[in-house]
Structure formats: structure tokens, C-alpha cells
Amino acid sequence: QVQLAESGGGLVQAGGSLRLSCVVSGRPFDYLSMGWFRQAPGKEREFVIGRSWSGGTTYYAESVKGRFAMSRDNAKNTVYLQMNSLESEDTAVYYCVADKEDIAGPYEYDYWGQGTPVTVSS
Q1: Is the pLDDT higher at 106 or at 116?
Q2: Cα separation of 28 and 33, whole Å?
Q3: Which helix (H) or strand (E) holds 59?
Q4: Is pLDDT of 56 > 80?
């Protein structure tokens, strides 16, 4: 069973940056497609970014293009979400996701973390 543990959320001012981490256990990390979703208060969950395990495709939500980036460290079984130029609209609980398939888009991922909250103050 794959387990995902996010960390790094918190309070940041608009225009600032934050980096979220997600440590993965329970399955060889190299063959997991990884991504991030978020859910703002009173809104539906939305896809943020994802990368296929083959590394060939990274998919971004339009709202975060040019501001957010995703990276992974296979040696540490960790994926990161670097968030820059944060806006109040980015306030949400951020969820790390994983899937065995070689996917990168807004699909139904098999595994989900518990989420880490991010609050952007204006």
C-alpha cells in the first residue's frame, strides 16, 4: 500500500513562496506518477500539477503555469511542489497524489495524502 505524507504548508504573504514536500513509501517510487491537487474552502477539488513516472509529460493547471513547479528526488522518495508568486486564490489544502499508471493529467489518482494547508494572506 502506497502512503503519502505531505509537509511544508503554512501561512505566507501574497507574492511569497512556499515549497511543499511529499514523502512516498510502500512502493518503488521510480514507477509512480506523482501530482498535486488542492481544495479551497467551499470549492471543489482541483488538479494543480502532475508528472508521469517516465518523466515525459508534466501537466499544469492554467492557473499555476509560470508560478508553480514540481520536482522529484528519487533517492529520497520525495516529490516537491515549489509555489512562487502566491496569490490569495492559492489558499487551499494541498494533496499529494500518486498512481501506478504513466499519467500526468487531472485523472483519478490511486493514492492520496492527508493534505497540508496553505494560506496566502493579502
Answers
A1: 116
A2: 11
A3: strand 58-60
A4: no
Examine the pLDDT at 95 and tell me if it is beyond 90. yes
Tally of CB atoms within 10 A around 103: 20
120 bridge partner residues = 12
Residue 114 region, left (φ>0) first, then alpha (ψ -120 to 50), else beta? alpha
Q: What is the DSSP string of 11-27?
A: EEETT--EEEEEEEESS
Cell of 86: 502566491
- Compute the average pLDDT of residues 31-59: 93
Do you know the residue count of the chain? Answer: 122
Partnered with residue 39 across adjacent β-strands are 45, 93
